[in-house]
Amino acid sequence: MKNYNSKFKIKESLKKISKITILLAIREVYLFFRNLYGLVCHPFLTIKRIEKEKDLSQGLLIFGLPGYFWFGTIVFLAILRFLMGIRGNLGWIAQTSLASITFFSGLMFFWLFWWFLKTLQNLNGGQK
User: Fold this and answer.
1) Whether 118 contacts 42, CB under 8 Å
2) pLDDT tens over the chain, length 128 residues
3) Alpha-carbon dihedral of residues 124, 35, 74, 109, nearest 10 degrees?
4) What does the alpha-carbon distance between residue 82 and residue 124 come to, in Å, rounded to a whole number?
5) How far is CA 96 from each of CA 45, 50, 73, 91, 118, rounded to the nearest angstrom?
6) CA distance 51 to 74
7) How far apart are CA 99 and CA 12, in angstroms?
């Protein structure tokens, strides 16, 4: 009987943990897309809200976005090359896609950094 109760408690605990994990994942995905939309429409207010709320997870998700795009492209190209069995230099399609994603990620990084500096400048009372 004791063994049955411990298994039941473990099952209940796993159900609670999975429920909380799913709810947290839904919340983070919603906040990510809300912040992403906010960065496109009104970046100053969105970055100001992220700074004010001190939400580290959303800060990492939003400000790490250029790195995620770039790293994802590297991993995708590496997996493709492994699956196709290609050795040696990258082909022209891979070089073009890597260069374009690097350029796009760089632009996104500088755009986010510029708005971040503008927000910090405004939060500090307009001082340079």
Assistant:
1) no
2) 556 667 777 788 888 899 999 998 998 888 888 888 888 888 888 788 877 878 777 777 788 888 888 998 888 888 888 877 777 677 788 788 888 999 999 998 898 888 888 887 877 766 55
3) -30
4) 50
5) 35, 34, 12, 9, 33
6) 30
7) 50
Predicted TM-score (pTM) above 0.70: no
Q: DSSP 3-state assignment of 16?
A: helix
Beta strands in 1-128, from DSSP E residues, in sequence order: none
Q: Which DSSP symbol is given to 51?
A: H
| Cα distance between the two ends of the chain | 70
Rounded to whole angstroms, how far apart are CA atoms 90 and 84? 12
Structure tokens at 57: 């997870």
Question: For tokens 């159900």, what's the residue?
Answer: 15
